[in-house]
């Protein structure tokens, strides 16, 4: 273990802290985290965490969700500027307007959203549980926010519901084009194409498998194939290679890189634990309102 990793281990003990990391953060951070996973898994870990401090190696909405679910813990973020742009991409007035338009409506909010947006929503979803949750809702009309692409993918699988879409998007996943994917397939014809549903529908349509980061890792690990074209942020390569050292993974271009996730480094994890800075604070009324949507997700998804 190098010095920095050792310092972090010592600080974790001293602070009675746990380190959670998303699959998109740097390999070195994933390597020393106590838990690494997709958004759904990490929300469940945060909910049940008994250590005093949760250090969240991820973007703002992840730390906020941890604090909403487990307010008695101190939640700290290694870099306060690590924020997901899509988490802000819905206008609250638009939610009010759609609510006025439809009686039988559920506002379904991707977990990649601010606490305020969650507080205006009926239920949260992640990419790994959205299908199950939307199917279970009694409402016919589904306003899916903020991500249009995940919404359209889920909508295509549940034709009995009427979906209303919002125009939010992830700039990392939408930079993956169908053309890039087709070229990668031409270069590696026996590779399977694994796609995150934040990609656009023309990319999703080329996929052998569509799922969350954990879903992609599990699929590749279980598959008999030994070559894969990866259509998501390339941070997943760390776990893919750990679990599948003899399989080969190809990217589809040079932009599969989330600059916000990559703000998290061993240095800022160490500094945050040492100084106990960047604590997530939420207004209690807002927290309780946002919690309803997360609680409902956890209830239906289990
Ligand atoms: P999942 O890990 O839940 O698939 O989410 C992807 C993502 O973009 C997180 O920001
Ligand atoms: Fe947000 Fe996209 Fe980065 Fe995920 S990969 S945190 S959705 S910008």
* Count of DSSP H/I helices: 14
Instruction: Please report the distance between the alpha carbons of the first and last residues.
Output: 37 Å
CATH architecture of the largest domain: 3-Layer(aba) Sandwich
CATH class of the largest domain: Alpha Beta
Total domain modules:
3
Secondary-structure element sequence? HEHEHEHEHEHEHEHEHEHEHEHEHH
Q: What strand order characterises the main sheet?
A: 2-1-3-4
Can you walk me through this structure?
The chain has 302 residues and is an alpha/beta fold. It has three domains: 3-83 and 261-281, Rossmann fold (3-Layer(aba) Sandwich), CATH 3.40.50; 86-169 and 287-301, NadA-like (Rossmann fold); 173-250, Rossmann fold (3-Layer(aba) Sandwich), CATH 3.40.50.10800. Helices cover 43% and strands 16% of the residues. It has helices spanning 3-15, 27-32, 39-48, 60-69, 92-101, 115-119, 130-136, 148-157, 178-187, 201-204, 213-222, 236-243, 266-275, 284-301; strands spanning 17-22, 35-37, 53-57, 74-76, 105-110, 123-125, 141-145, 162-165, 192-195, 209-210, 227-231, 248-250. A four-stranded parallel beta sheet has the order 2-1-3-4, with helices on both faces. α3 runs parallel beside α4 (60-69) and α11 (213-222) runs parallel beside α12. It starts with a helix and ends with a helix. The mean pLDDT is 97. The protein binds 1,3-dihydroxyacetonephosphate and iron/sulfur cluster (SF4). Residues 24, 59, 84-86, 112, 170-173, 198, 233, 258, 260-261 line the site of iron/sulfur cluster (SF4). Iron/sulfur cluster (SF4) binds next to loops.
């Amino acid at each position: 273990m190098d010095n920095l990793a050792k310092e972090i281990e010592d600080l974790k003990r001293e602070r009675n802290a746990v380190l959670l990391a998303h699959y998109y953060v740097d390999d070195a951070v994933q390597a020393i985290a106590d838990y690494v996973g997709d958004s759904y898994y990490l929300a469940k870990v945060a909910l049940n965490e008994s250590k005093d401090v949760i250090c969240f190696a991820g973007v703002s909405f992840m730390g906020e969700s941890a604090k909403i679910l487990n307010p008695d813990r101190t939640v700290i973020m290694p870099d306060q500027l690590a924020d997901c742009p899509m988490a802000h991409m819905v206008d609250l007035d638009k939610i009010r307007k759609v609510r006025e338009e439809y009686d039988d409506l559920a506002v379904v909010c991707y977990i990649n959203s601010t606490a305020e947006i969650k507080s205006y929503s009926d239920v949260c979803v992640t990419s790994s549980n959205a299908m199950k949750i939307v199917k279970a809702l009694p409402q016919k009309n589904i306003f899916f926010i903020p991500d249009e692409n995940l919404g359209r993918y889920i909508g295509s699988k549940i034709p009995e519901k009427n979906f209303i879409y919002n125009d939010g998007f992830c700039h990392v996943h939408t930079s993956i084009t169908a053309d890039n994917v087709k070229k990668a397939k031409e270069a590696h014809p026996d590779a399977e194409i694994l796609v995150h549903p934040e990609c656009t529908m023309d990319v999703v349509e080329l996929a052998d498998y569509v799922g969350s980061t954990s879903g992609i890792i599990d699929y590749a690990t279980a598959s008999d194939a030994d070559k894969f074209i990866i259509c998501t942020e390339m941070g997943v390569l760390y776990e893919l290679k750990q679990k599948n050292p003899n399989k080969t993974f190809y990217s589809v271009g040079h932009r599969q890189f989330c600059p916000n996730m990559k703000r998290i480094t061993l240095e800022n994890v160490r500094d945050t634990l040492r100084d106990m800075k960047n604590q997530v604070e939420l207004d209690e009324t807002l927290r309780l309102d946002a919690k309803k949507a997360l609680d409902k997700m956890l209830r239906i998804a289990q």
